[in-house]
Amino acid sequence: MKKQFLLMSALVCALTLTFTACDNNDDDIRFSDVPASVQSSFQNLYAETSVKWEVENGLYKAELWVKGKEVDVYFKPDGTWVRTDSDFSPMGLPTAVVSYVETNYPDYRIDDADYVETPTGNYYEIELEKNGTRDVYLKITEEGALAE
What we know:
This protein has three helices and eight strands.
């Protein structure tokens, strides 16, 4: 029995190390490598201290959890806030958004949703799925209109 326990423990450790090694994300950066202007802008928006930073498409991205939801906040290198993407439950989408999808994409289902805030306006980013076809991505305002 003890031998089986040791064997199982070794297997669990080996699997853990394997998956941890495969989870390298070369875009991750240390907080000390984030420009002071970006750090300041972030701290003006959020008091969170548990933040993972990345550089994505030339923007600094702060990944954090707020009220149980994953939030990604994007900044230009000069500290200018670009947008905030928050996970959003498809079940909680406004009626106008759901109606737009049902009317214009009746054979699709909503697979994923994010709420996106930008300096020029907010919208829901919706991912639609249909078997055998490519996913469709839409930006829809709370009023049920396509966002630019």
